Amino acid sequence: MADSGVRGSERPEDSEPGLKRLENLVAELVQAMSEMKQETRKIVKQEISEMKQETRNKLNKTGNEYGGSANGPDTRAVREARQFTLEHGKRLWQDLTEEFKEELVAVRQQCEGHTGRRVESKVEGRPCPMVVDTGVAKTVVREEVVAVQDLPVSDRQLCGVTGHYTML
After folding, report:
1. I need a surface site. Which of 74, 82, 85, 113 has the fewest CB within 10 A?
2. Are 134 and 117 in contact (CB under 8 A)?
3. Torsions phi, psi for 161 (to 5 deg)
């Protein structure tokens, strides 16, 4: 029984049936795992489908309890919130429009009857555009005029005071 260290004590013909049995066992194991995998997929798909249906049913039930549609919950609170948002947006737009109109009228009243002139001149051979006040307390010009000066830009920018000129 003890291995005496003699070569040839293993018989190759005895190992072949053992290998065949091992290969068959592995093949059966692979087949069983494949079948289990397919069964598991079917079960998981079925459970997911049932969960989706259950969720749809709950949503429809919840939606119908609160006056929603059959497609899902559209509760009264949601409809009211949507309506409030729309109305609030319209009111906000109207308020801003009115504020802008009032500001525009105030600026026009300040500048009424006075003029500012844009003048092209040359300083040391280089063109130098300017705005010259001819009598207003303050000059308000559009952003295109101010943009050239690298000043902070707004729609109406204060550029000068009576009797002064502003280089552009």
Report:
1. 113
2. yes
3. -130, 160
* Exposed/middle/buried for residue 145 (C-beta within 10 Å: 0-12, 13-18, 19+): buried
Counting the structural domains of the chain, the total is 1
Give domain status of residue 42, yes or no: no
Q: Give the pTM.
A: 0.30
DSSP class of residue 117?
Answer: E
Q: Which domain holds residue 137?
A: 114-167
User: What would the two tokens of residue 138 be?
Assistant: 């303050």
- 10-39 pLDDT, tens digit per residue, is 555 556 777 888 888 888 988 989 899 999
Three-state secondary-structure class, residue 6:
coil
Contacts of 133 (CB under 8 A, 6+ apart): 114, 116, 139, 160, 161, 162, 163, 164, 165
Q: How far apart are CA 59 and CA 75, in angstroms?
A: 11
Q: Do 134 and 114 touch, CB atoms closer than 8 A?
A: yes
The SS3 assignment for 90 reads helix
Confidence of residue 86 (pLDDT cuts 50, 70, 90): confident
Residue among 152, 135, 134 at smallest CA distance from 143: 152
User: Is position 108 within any domain?
Assistant: no
